[in-house]
Amino acid sequence: MKILIVSNFYYNRGGDCTYMFSLKRLLEEKGHKVIVFSMHHPLNFDSPYSRYFVNYINYDQAVKKISISTGFEVLSRAVFSLEAMRKMERLIEDEQPDIAHLQNIHHHITPSIFYPLKRNKIPIVWTLHDFVLICPNTSFLANGRICERCKKRKYFWPPLVRCKKNSFLASLMAGIETTIHRLMRVNELVDVFIAPSEFLKNKLIEYGFDPERIVSLNNFSNIEISEDGVKEDDYYLYIGRISFEKGIRTLIDAALMADTGRLRIIGEGPLKEEMLAYVQDRDHRARIEFLGHKSHDEVIKFLKRARFLVLPSECYENFPYSIIEAFACGKPVIASRIGGIPEIVRNWQTGLLFPPGDVENLSLKIRFFMKHPNKARTMGRDAREFIKNQLNGDVYYERLIKIYEELLKNKDEDFAN
Fold first, then answer.
1. Would you say 353 and 342 are in contact if contact means Cβ atoms under 8 Å apart?
2. HSE-up (13 A, CA, CB side) for residue 375
3. Domain 2-129+191-220+393-416 has CATH 3.40.50.2000
């Protein structure tokens, strides 16, 4: 089978890309040919299909050039990319894929590619990594708080509350983009939406999506799981974006209050400089360290030596890949009880849950794992078994290939009629 994977980015940028590369590897191991369609980027890995990639655009830089022409250029690219549509047509003509499996495509590739795919009767499967189809800001956040003002398609709210990057222009464009896509009914061109969590599936249904076209299918891990006797160090990890909604301030305050072990923070984000200064003023024991961006292989090495992972999100999460990777490395997770997180972190079995934003409760959980390492190791072993038995590549592939085959069967039946 020839499977076309479509993703905005082709480098290790976050959980969506981790999933995309894992999926590519899994499908190739099962004997399928994987074709890639993406966007050029300075950090991209090499690809034999890069001649089809769309040109890179840096929206952060573009929106700084405030002008009518720049605004129109950014909006037109974000809503409907003629370049992406034409290059997709060329790729289909040259490679003849059987099925398209989409990842994150908004703002760069855009749903413009749906039209050549449908003209060529190529079924579309879309794994959703965030809430972009029902929230213009993709994360149900406005000014650091959970926000669902746009429910019932009230897309005038984003510019009023400046939910996108605290920018009127970025928020206005997000609202317009979502409105236009709704009017164009582009989502109706997708054959199957894959929701990695029940939380996301239920949200989609709550916002009016057809439940018959949504399949709940948890993400998976293809990390080689082994108990290789790597010696633990006395640190615990945070892996992710350094931003308010990810609970980074809550985590730092809890780490300072716990006053035990070392916290290592992997990632970049808009609050990094502010948090560096915040820690410098308060962390007199030098227990907190910012490590910056690390490659995927480096992240796994840090995980294997850590005591546990902390995910203190204060926004809705889908099915975080950082948790899956921690489990695969035999590490328990302390995480906030929000979004899809409780579906994977089972309290007192594979980790510990705490109320979002509760510094004192989180500090107690950190102290507990540091004081009772054997308890943490037991939960870590249970977490590894959970990955081995339920979230492994073979189980995932069996469910995914049934989706593919059913769509191709329906395509053949439609063609015969």
1. yes
2. 15
3. yes
Q: Report pLDDT digits (tens) over 344-372.
A: 999 999 999 999 999 999 999 999 999 99
Inter-residue long-range contacts of 163-167, CB under 8 Å, 24+ positions, other chains counted = 163/136, 163/137, 164/136, 164/137, 167/63
Helices (H) and strands (E) counted in the chain, each on its own, are 15, 14
Q: Work out the pLDDT band at 15, boundaries 50, 70, 90.
A: confident
d(CA 71, CA 248): 33
On the question of a common fold for 2-129+191-220+393-416 and 235-390, the answer reads: yes
DSSP string, 38-50: -B--TTPPP-TTG
The domain 235-390: what is its CATH number?
A: 3.40.50.2000
- Does the predicted TM-score (pTM) go above 0.85? yes
What the block records as the tokens of 66 is 């405030």
Domains of the chain, residue spans: 2-129+191-220+393-416, 235-390
Structure tokens at 138: 């993709």
